[in-house]
Amino acid sequence: MTQIALFGTSADPPTAGHQAILHWLSQRFDRVVVWASDNPFKTHQTALEHRMKMLSLLIEEINPPNPNIAVYPELSSRRTLETLERAKQYWSDVEYTLVIGSDLVQQIPQWYQIKTLLKQVKLLIVPRPGYGVEATDLEKVKQLGGQVKIADIKGLPVSSSHYRQTGNIEVLPPSVQAYIDQEQLYESTVKD
Ligand SMILES: Nc1ncnc2c1ncn2[C@@H]1O[C@H](COP(=O)(O)OP(=O)(O)OP(=O)(O)O)[C@@H](O)[C@H]1O
Ligand SMILES: O=C(O)c1ccc[n+]([C@@H]2O[C@H](COP(=O)([O-])O)[C@@H](O)[C@H]2O)c1
């Protein structure tokens, strides 16, 4: 059966960490469906349109290029269940895997209608430096119906908030750095 990976991100801004995950996924899934979204638990510093554009640029930069990975702006929703419902209108009869970093394992039980979501997707957790997966958190997700796997990669030690706090452009792919400069985004961030 066709395997589709679902990867949603605040992308505020997207980092080399997101890029490495997407590259890895594109080599293992038939299709990687990506979207930038607002997060009901966060505020965002940049308009969604810019975040979506940065995500597309980051994907275009992945080498070697792989046509199985793309941003789908129309799937963007604060609720991942809504994204899934829309995706199912495009691709039915496929197996969906929702991809999250290990920092979200503790939070995911609070997502909108999580049981309904976990019935329809497998969950793939990408280990993130500084965020070990606690057995009790994993158990909670399983009790909610989650079929969980831990990905065989280690996320990079970078984050969007590190960039926003420090202005350290090294955590951003060159295409994203250039876009931020061109559009004068994150102006309040002290740039290195
Ligand atoms: N370096 C990383 N390693 C593993 N997972 C990551 C990494 N960066 C992001 N992710 C995962 O990718 C998804 C989108 O992350 P998000 O856009 O919130 O980035 P972030 O760096 O966590 O942002 P912020 O620092 O603003 O919270 C989440 O599931 C997150 O756990
Ligand atoms: O469905 C929800 O209730 C829900 C709650 C929090 C986050 N999400 C989604 O999880 C994805 C990762 O969020 P973030 O902010 O860590 O990038 C992103 O697509 C969010 O919209 C989804």
Automatic annotation (TrEMBL):
This is Probable nicotinate-nucleotide adenylyltransferase. Transmembrane segments: none annotated. It is an enzyme of class 2 (transferase). One of its GO terms (molecular function) is nicotinate-nucleotide adenylyltransferase activity. Belongs to the NadD family. It catalyses: nicotinate beta-D-ribonucleotide + ATP + H(+) = deamido-NAD(+) + diphosphate; (R)-4'-phosphopantetheine + ATP + H(+) = 3'-dephospho-CoA + diphosphate. Pathway: Cofactor biosynthesis; NAD(+) biosynthesis; deamido-NAD(+) from nicotinate D-ribonucleotide: step 1/1. It comes from the Bacteria. The lineage of its organism: Bacteria, Bacillati, Cyanobacteriota, Cyanophyceae, Oscillatoriophycideae. It holds the Pfam family CTP_transf_like. Keywords: ATP-binding, Coenzyme A biosynthesis, Cytoplasm, Magnesium, NAD, Nucleotide-binding, Nucleotidyltransferase, Pyridine nucleotide biosynthesis, Transferase. CDD domains: NMNAT (cd02165). It comes from Planktothrix tepida PCC 9214. Residues 6-165 form the Cytidyltransferase-like domain. GO terms for biological process: coenzyme A biosynthetic process; NAD+ biosynthetic process. InterPro entries: Cyt_trans-like (IPR004821), NadD/NMNAT (IPR005248), PPAT (IPR001980), Rossmann-like_a/b/a_fold (IPR014729). Catalyzes the reversible adenylation of nicotinate mononucleotide (NaMN) to nicotinic acid adenine dinucleotide (NaAD). Its EC number is 2.7.7.18.
